Amino acid sequence: MRSEAVSQGYIARNRQKKLLLVFAFLLLAMMAAVGLSVGASAVGPLDVLESLFRDTGRANTIIWQLRMPRIVMAMLVGFGLGVAGTVFQAILKNPLASPFTLGIGSGAGFGAVVVIIFMRGGLYPQLAAASAFVFSLLSAFFILGIAKMKHASSETMILTGIAQMFLFSALSAFFQYMGTMEQVYEVTFWHFGSLSKAGWREIGFTSLMVLIPFPLLVRRAWDFNLLATGDESALALGVDVERLRMWGVIAASLITAGCICFTGVIGFVGLVAPHIVRMTMGSDHCTLIPASGLVGGLLVLAADILANTVWAPQVIPIGIMTSFIGVPFFFYLLMKRTREYW
Amino acid sequence: MIAAYRVSIAAVLLLQPLCIIAPALGASQNEVVDALGRKVEVVTPVRRIVALNSDAVEVLRILNVQDLIVGVFSQIDADPQFWGDLVNRRKVGSWREPNSEVIVELEPDIVLAYAKTPSPEWEARMAARGIRVLRFELYRIDSLEREVRELGRVLDRKEEAERFCSWHDLWLRRIREKVASVVPRPSVYVESYGDYVSAGPTTGGDQMCVDAGGRNISDVMAIPFPRVTPEWVVAQDPDVVVKAAVSNAKYGAAESGAALNRVRDRIMQRPAWNLIKAVSSGRVHVLDSSIWVGPRAIIGLAYMIQWLHPGLMADLSPEALHKEYLETFQKLPYKGVFVSDPVAGSDGKCP
């Protein structure tokens, strides 16, 4: 009798989680529709609808070449950073972990700075993106190398990541110190983050980096759940903890690198999206991973729409705007919560 | 014998105070009005100068006082071809955060800095050591002449300052007179360093656009260097696009405009920018940062007027102007490429 009640409760919770997932997805689609309908030119919702079915000339070009890539990139980057943040928090068992805690964001920033200062990066933005990608992966592999020597303990990984973050930040600052006024301007604007540079080619690459590791991560969701109970328990239940950590870092780093190499630093999403989901839907990674992605997408998309409209025609850099809307929302949830969720 | 001894002692007693007083008698105080409108007292003659930025060093070379420079910004190493012997002067660090200890050690009479960088706190530290900091915006075309004259006066190089200012003023006035009556003014999207970062009001780029007879579409902005959306530029549909690029090329090293042409082509291929008049008519131009703002901004302006109003000043050759500037005021031969090539097939006029 009691076990029946428990299983019914479990089914009801699962149904509720699925409903919340569907709601988040619908909200994301609605937000995308809003994003497609607002912009500097006189192309409204009806034009958007019309352009979905036939070529409307100028409006079509604006929607398919300017607004759509920006919206898709915003969702993709937010989704990727949300998923990567969840994975980092799970494998490191630390609520403060995010792609940036491990120095992967700083690695990407350093890669871009090197190219801008020493290799005429202003003339070759693709080179800056490639360098950002390579350096973010290098920083991930460095953590893996150190962790391998110390049996992949979460403390070692976090400490290595934080040390690496400071090192890359210091190196970036040093190279900026050596740069001219013009180069410093370019570096500053790269660090602010921007979705305007995203075209379909960039989206193609980022989607590969985000959407290929994603299902593999969802498949390991139960392993992440077991890891949350402790390394020993997970080991006892057959999880190869060291291997899971290594694999998780590689997958989440690839996602992060793919997201930020074209857009610049969009921090905070990877940290806050998983917490928002934990507070509302619980800590089961089967739903936590996809839901964090959806919430991350929502955050970046909402930030992008506001960034382009509240102070138009000026654009508030996306990296700044994401924190502007994410932090108050996070505080709101934090104050409202009635139970421990981590 | 005793008399001669007394005379020599008297002479020594008379000469000693003179030896002490004479140098001080030669020195005098000079008041300089800097870019912040402050009146700064400078003891002249100035014998030792530290220049924290490239614009200051370039102006000092215009005034032919490069020998007085004892300390230079560290980034000067990046272009030995342009700066020549000056790269061997003592490096004092970055233009933003110079090394105070090295500067104090150099005992300069004046330090030349930008108006807002380094910080006022750093200046206070220099002032505590008796070092005067003169802040000049030598990169702004509208205040350049006044500041060069002010520097020429305090460095006792009025003639050199006047020679440069007359040359600069002649061309600037001619350009301004010529464009004053030109209507309509083409709309221009002026992009600064960084993609979609426009040159807004109060910037050197905005000033150059107006001087070249253009209407800067970003002059409605609230901040100097706002980021804009590509869609906003498409909606504004500018007649001309001008982009400043940091080519980082060493002086004279660029034998062709290939690098700048690549930037131009990339701009023309931006998504949906084929809808912009400037792109469809091939009126997209890129110029190197060295002639964008700074003492050589007049060269950039000369190029801009050719792009904005082709044929309006047939007697104005930007290359000839650049050559004259380099040979006369910098004692350097003219070499290198500083702007992108015209787009093949474009006549440079509005469609």
How is this structure best described in words?
The complex is a heterodimer of chains A (342) and B (351). Chain A has 342 residues and is mainly alpha-helical. Chain A has a single domain (75-340), classed as ABC transporter involved in vitamin B12 uptake, BtuC. Chain A has helices at 2-37, 45-53, 58-92, 104-118, 125-149, 154-178, 181-192, 200-211, 213-219, 221-228, 231-236, 241-263, 269-281, 285-309, 318-336. The longest helix of chain A is centred in the N-terminal third of the chain and has 36 residues, at 2-37. Chain A is globular. The two termini of chain A are 31 Å apart. The relative contact order of chain A is 0.16. Chain B folds into two domains: 2-156, Nitrogenase molybdenum iron protein domain (Rossmann fold, 3-Layer(aba) Sandwich), CATH 3.40.50; 181-330, 3-Layer(aba) Sandwich (Rossmann fold). Helices cover 40% and strands 13% of the residues of chain B. In chain B, strands 5-4-3-6-7 form a five-stranded parallel sheet, sandwiched between helices. In chain B, helix 2 links the parallel strand 3 (49-51) and strand 4 (69-72). The longest helix of chain B has 25 residues, at 2-26. The relative contact order of chain B is 0.11. The A-B interface holds A 39-42, 58, 61-62, 65-67, 69, 120, 122-125, 177-186, 188-190, 192, 194, 196-197, 199, 308, 311-315, 317 and B 53-54, 74-75, 78, 94-97, 192-197, 220-223, 225-232, 234-235, 244-249, 259-260, 262-263, 266, 271-272, 274-275, 289.
